[in-house]
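User: Predict structure, ligand succinic acid.
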Amino acid sequence: MTELTAQTGTRTYGLFVDGQWEPAGSGRTFPVTDPATGATVAFVADAGADDARRAIEAAYRAFPAWSRTPAVDRSRILRHVAALMRERKEPLARQLTREGGKPIREARGEIEYAAGFLDWFAGEAERVYGDIIPHWTFGKRHLVLKQPIGVVAAITPWNFPAAMVTRKVAPALAAGCTVVLKPAEQTPLTALALAELFAQAGLPPGVLNIVPTSDPRPVGEEMLHNELVRKITFTGSTEVGKYLMREAAGQVKRVSLELGGHAPVIIFDDADLDKAVAGTLASKFRNMGQTCVCANRIYVQRGILDAFAQRFAEAVRSLKVGHGLEEDVQVGPLIDAAGLEKVKSHVDDAVAKGARVLTGGHVITGDGFSGGCWYAPTVLVDMHDEMRIMKEETFGPVAPIIAFDTEAEAYRRANDSRYGLAAYVFTENINRALRAAERLEYGIVGVNEGLPSTPQVPFGGFKESGIGREGGPYGIHEFLEVKMVGLAIDETVPGE
Ligand code: SIN
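Assistant: Predicted complex:
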């Protein structure tokens, strides 16, 4: 069990190292709070560099046996965990909402999404084929083997406490790697609950280790500088991603980085407005606007600007805001005070520079909202490119609407960003849809839909949005090395 001791009436959870639940070496713990109320939900053992080192050493010891375990057996464990997740969907979703603030319906969706990565990579484990490359020289053969990289350090974000864990852990384990995972300090409980399910499904000790911490730096530094770690996989900000990439270069560690985004939505005047409003709403307000693929700039062709803005603002006004555990809530709290401050500063800056607020535009306080970080779902118009929100990722429930005239202008403005993760297009014209999909410099393009992510397709960005792809047939290759075996053979057949 994860529970170690009772502390001021709430549970205390341990680190998961080498198949054991244990306290941090320092004996320290840190609180996990409900972002909707500020109430303490649980305490968690607070890992330091020494704990991370022990976890890395456990993963290193477990690697030879796990990497040689037949793929079919590794798959069986992943599928078993997926089944356990579905069986426990409700308690897992409730815990996820409690620590992350996400509305319960989205949390249930996330558990299903997360289980999907386990199922998908269970299948992929069995399809890690090598190659035989035709030789150019008599007496030679060339084989290509795909082999697991080794110990992987995974660093996951708070906005998807379940799905970003399985999106990294499932392909790593499927490939035959072992893992040390540092979940976000705001949301470690879901990761620990998943560790329990892995143990229950028969994952051998040391194959997956979890080291939550209140201070990411010492654990992160150990992951970066310990020579036993061969790969860093990270989802989070572009700034931290760049730091990891620079430091990982010291040992030429492999990196996969899923970083920030600043997704444009382009709504052409031939779009179906119902689809455009529903798709943009789904993209923008998913997890209160706190995903890397959320709509950040909504470009609407001038002829339909007023009609779209009015319908969209009406839909936004009707969103129900409240504690995520209330069944019909659609928008919960922001994760913390820093998140709230950023949203507020983006809106204030835009308004000071001439933006008009169609709805929202303020912090929510008062009955039912004390203790948490709440911002009203907001729609802005009369935007221009000097506003901060037009360049920086807001990570909050704010939708700026911008007019454009021509198709060429839409692509130029949409591509005018250092980010390149996700973009969206709404049009009923197939030619335009295809042109847009090809012209947009983004790793993911949603056409007439606002939620394109799913486990069986690649996810990742162009430009400063990252390196590598997760999910789909590509995701497992991030955890494999390619080895060429050159074989000299005697071609003579005795008796021929
Ligand atoms: C993310 O925001 O990092 C993940 C979003 C997704 O998987 O769709």
